[in-house]
Specification:
single chain, alpha/beta, Spore Coat Polysaccharide Biosynthesis Protein SpsA, Chain A, 3 domains, 7-stranded mixed β-sheet, 3-stranded antiparallel β-sheet, 17% strand, globular, signal-anchor, galactosylgalactosylxylosylprotein 3-beta-glucuronosyltransferase activity, Nucleotide-diphossugar_trans, transmembrane
Length: 313
């Protein structure tokens, strides 16, 4: 409540004894935006304090994390790293959507081991797109995750967390009370190394990204979250099968404008997520496939690593 009082005092200083003359319309607008932002922050803080005081995480809004993935040697290691983060986030539900035609039992076993509430979905890319030179990766996975939400969720927040990014647990605190759409910066992405809304004095100024590409919302997939209630209110919202325009197409399908966006991470001044990418395994194992290792632990480990013998040409 002290924050609100401080804002009121600042507004009185700007108004001056003669009304609004010492401030001007721009300053008045900035103060109004600041009041809205701070009021939202106060509401979130009060909610957090109630949860902490009652030590009841079940009262927290659920964060539904949709993670597209696909079979490869790095799949389990990537998801292991992400799981170690999610294990430290209360009241979370993990939707792991696998671009495959057959269940991956090793992945299923690992997800069970994590004890994170989850659903494993098999979501192969439609065949009409799989032959494209530039494929719309992860679109079928994310759309399937959103369809699951429409059938099983009524409130909370949805976030698309790719399996190769790096996440600070504070990011999930930031997004948990999203009222419509929230955004924040993403590091180590695009040729500029950063993707973020440009914010000044609490007001949206534009976009910073290495590739604008005519997009209305030139943001990274890791840089926003959406209220489940709001998503359910837009039944046709979906991600398009258009490489490079997945985020923009989805956000436009939500019928939002920059005025609807809640800027998190201290007005987009903090980095809590990075677009890291694991180097592809360059191992070309040959000895491991020798028959002398059949019926030994080596064969088990080879299968866990998803190593395949080279195809003869």
């Amino acid at each position: 409540m002290m924050v609100v009082v401080v804002v009121w005092m600042l507004s009185q200083q700007q108004l001056g004894p003669g009304g609004f003359s010492t401030c001007g319309l721009h300053c008045i607008s900035s103060l109004a935006d600041l009041k809205v932002s701070l009021a939202r922050t106060v509401r979130e803080e009060l909610r957090r304090r109630v949860v902490v005081e009652n030590n009841n995480h079940s009262e927290l809004p659920t964060i539904y994390v949709i993670t597209p993935t696909y079979p490869r040697p790095e799949q389990i290691p990537e998801l292991t790293r992400l799981a170690q983060t999610l294990m430290n986030v209360p009241n979370i539900y993990w939707l792991v959507t696998d671009d495959t035609d057959t269940p991956n039992q090793d992945l299923i076993d690992y997800l069970t081991f994590t004890n994170i509430p989850h659903t494993y979905l098999i979501t192969p890319m439609p065949p009409e797109y799989s032959g494209h030179k530039v494929k719309p990766k992860g679109v079928a996975n994310r759309n399937a995750g959103m369809e699951w939400l429409r059938q099983h969720a009524s409130k909370g927040v949805v976030y698309f967390a790719d399996d190769d990014n790096t996440y600070d647990i504070r990011l999930f605190q930031e997004m948990r009370y999203t009222e419509k759409v929230s955004m924040w910066p993403v590091g180590l992405v695009s040729k500029e190394g950063l993707s973020t809304p440009v914010v000044s004095e609490g007001k949206f100024q534009g976009w910073f990204d290495g590739w604008i590409g005519g997009r209305t919302f030139p943001v990274d997939m890791a840089g926003f979250a959406v209220s489940v209630q709001y998503l359910l209110g837009v039944p046709n919202a979906a991600m398009p099968y258009k490489p490079g325009h997945e985020e923009d197409g989805f956000l436009r399908s939500l019928h939002i404008s920059p005025n609807d966006i809640e800027f998190k991470a201290e007005q987009c001044t903090k980095l809590y997520v990075w677009h890291t990418q694991t180097k592809k395994s360059r191992h070309q194992p040959n000895i491991i496939f020798k028959k002398k290792y059949d019926n030994t632990n080596i064969r088990v480990l080879q299968e866990l690593l998803r190593f395949q013998p080279e195809k003869s040409t």
